[in-house]
Specification:
about 400 residues, mainly alpha, Growth Hormone, Chain: A, 18 helices, 2 strands
C-alpha cells in the first residue's frame, strides 16, 4: 500500500487514525530520529570505565558521528540525491539504517575503534534525517519557514537531550539497553514520515538524479542572502555541538555536580540541553514579529555573552547563578540555528533548496569536528577553562554575516 502524501486523516478498513499536522509530524519524527546523535554520550561514564578511555576519546566518538554526517551530506548534495529523490523516502531509509548501526554500536562494539566505526555509520544515516527534515518542512509550510524550522530544531534539541534523560531514569539497566531505545525511536520516526510523505510546495523529485546539481549547488553561495546566513550558521556551529558534547563534563567539574547531586549528571545535562528546545520555539515566535535575521543574530550574540560570563565567573559564582547562566546558554546556543537555515532556504530557488541546505550542513559539521576535537583535547589538560575555545565561533558568525550581507548579490 502506497504512503499517503498530503492527508492528515488516514483510513484503513474500519479504523480512522487522525495524525497531527504535517509540521508537527515532521518535528516529532525529527525528535525520534535524532535521538541517535548523542546516544553514546549518555553512556560516557560507562564507556570510560569499561574501555579505560578518556574524555577526549568520548569526544572522538562524537566527532566520528559528525564525520559520518559530513560524508553523508556531501554524497546527498553532490550526488544529486537531495533534489533527485523524494525527501520522505530518503528520511525513512536513513532512519532505518541509523537504527541498525546504533544497535550494532550497542551490542558489537568492544573498544574505541569498533565503536567509532559504528558511530560514523550512524552519522552517515543522520545525513538523511536532519537535512531532509528541513526540506520536508519547506515542502509543507513555505509561508512560515522560520517558525516551522524552529519547531524542527526544537525537536532535534530534545532528541539530543533524550539519551541523557533515558540514562537517568533507566535505573540499573545496562547502557546497551539505553542506547537501543534510541534505535526504537528512530524506527518510529521512520513510520511517521512514511505515512506523511512529501509536501506539495516543492518541485516533484526527478526519477533520476541529474549531474547538474553537483556544480550548480555551489552557485547558492553567490547569493548575498544565502552567503550571509551561511557565515552566521558556520560560526554558530563552532559553538553548538561542542557545547552539547561537554555539558556532562561541565556539570561534573563545577559546583553544579555537587550542589545538584540529587538530580544527577545525566539529569542536569538533559535539562541544560533540552531547554534549547524552548529557545528554538521562542525564536520561531519572535521571527514572525522581528524577522529571522534579527532573531538569529540576537541569539548568537546572547550565547556569546553566556559563554563569556561562564568562562570568567565559573569558579566564583554560587551554584544557582551558575546554573542560570548555563540554562540561558543552553536556550540561546541553538535558537539561531533554524533562523539561519530559514534565511538560507528563502534565498535560493526551490530546485536547489535540498542540496544547498545539505552542503551548508556538511560544511557546518566539518567545523564541529575541529571544535569538538580541540576543546575535548584541551579539556584533558586545563579542564573547564578550555571553554574559551568556544568564543571565536559567535564572533566569527556575527562578523561574517555583517560582511557577506554587504556584498553584491548575484542570481542563484
Amino acid at each position: 500500500m502506497s504512503a499517503p502524501s498530503s492527508r492528515s486523516d488516514i483510513t484503513s478498513g474500519h479504523w480512522l487514525i487522525r495524525w497531527p499536522g504535517p509540521v508537527a509530524t515532521i518535528a516529532l519524527a525529527q525528535l525520534l530520529g535524532t535521538s541517535l546523535w548523542f546516544s553514546a554520550n549518555s553512556a560516557a561514564d560507562d564507556l570510560m570505565r569499561t574501555w579505560h578511555v578518556t574524555a577526549a576519546d568520548i569526544g572522538w566518538l562524537t566527532s566520528a558521528v559528525q564525520a559520518g554526517f559530513i560524508m553523508g551530506t556531501l554524497a546527498i548534495a553532490l550526488g544529486g540525491m537531495a533534489d533527485g529523490f523524494r525527501a520522505s523516502r530518503i528520511f525513512v531509509i536513513a532512519s532505518i539504517a541509523g537504527s541498525f548501526f546504533n544497535a550494532c554500536f550497542a551490542w558489537f562494539s568492544d573498544g574505541l575503534i569498533s565503536a567509532a566505526v559504528f558511530r560514523f555509520l550512524v552519522g552517515v544515516s543522520l545525513a538523511g534525517i536532519y537535512p531532509m527534515g528541513m526540506k520536508l518542512i519547506v515542502s509543507w509550510s513555505p509561508e512560515r519557514t522560520g517558525q516551522a524550522l524552529a519547531q524542527l530544531v526544537a525537536m532535534l534539541t530534545l532528541g539530543t537531550a533524550l539519551p541523557h534523560a533515558l540514562r537517568e531514569v533507566s535505573g540499573g539497566l545496562s547502557w546497551q539497553y539505553v542506547i537501543l531505545a534510541s534505535s526504537v525511536f528512530a524506527l518510529l520516526g521512520a513510520g511517521l514520515i512514511y505515512q506523511l510523505g512529501d509536501g506539495p510546495h516543492l518541485p516533484k523529485a526527478r526519477t533520476e538524479p541529474s549531474g547538474q546539481g553537483r556544480g550548480s549547488v555551489f552557485t547558492a553561495f553567490r547569493v548575498s542572502g544565502f552567503r550571509a546566513a551561511a557565515w552566521g550558521y558556520f560560526g554558530h556551529m563552532w559553538e553548538l555541538y561542542t557545547f552539547w558534547t561537554i555539558v556532562p563534563l561541565l556539570v561534573q567539574r563545577t559546583v553544579l555536580g555537587t550542589e545538584y547531586a540529587r538530580i544527577g549528571v545525566s539529569g542536569l545535562s538533559f535539562f541544560i540541553i533540552a531547554i534549547g528546545a524552548v529557545g528554538s520555539l521562542a525564536g520561531g515566535i519572535l521571527s514572525r514579529h522581528f524577522g529571522s535575521a534579527k532573531v538569529a543574530l540576537g541569539a548568537l550574540a546572547a550565547s556569546f555573552l553566556c559563554s563569556l560570563l561562564f568562562i570568567v565567573f565559573w569558579k566564583n559564582l554560587p551554584a544557582g547563578a551558575l546554573l542560570a547562566i548555563v540554562l540561558f546558554w543552553g536556550a540561546t546556543v541553538v535558537a539561531d540555528s533554524p533562523q539561519f537555515s530559514a534565511l538560507s532556504a528563502k534565498s535560493c530557488p526551490p530546485h536547489l533548496v535540498g542540496a544547498a541546505l545539505a552542503i551548508q550542513n556538511s560544511i557546518g559539521f566539518a567545523i564541529t569536528v575541529v571544535s569538538i576535537a580541540a576543546t575535548t583535547a584541551l579539556f584533558e589538560h586545563i579542564g573547564v577553562d578550555s571553554i574559551w575555545l568556544l568564543l571565536p565561533g559567535p564572533i566569527f558568525g556575527l562578523a561574517g554575516y555583517a560582511w557577506a550581507s554587504r556584498r553584491t548579490a548575484s542570481p542563484c
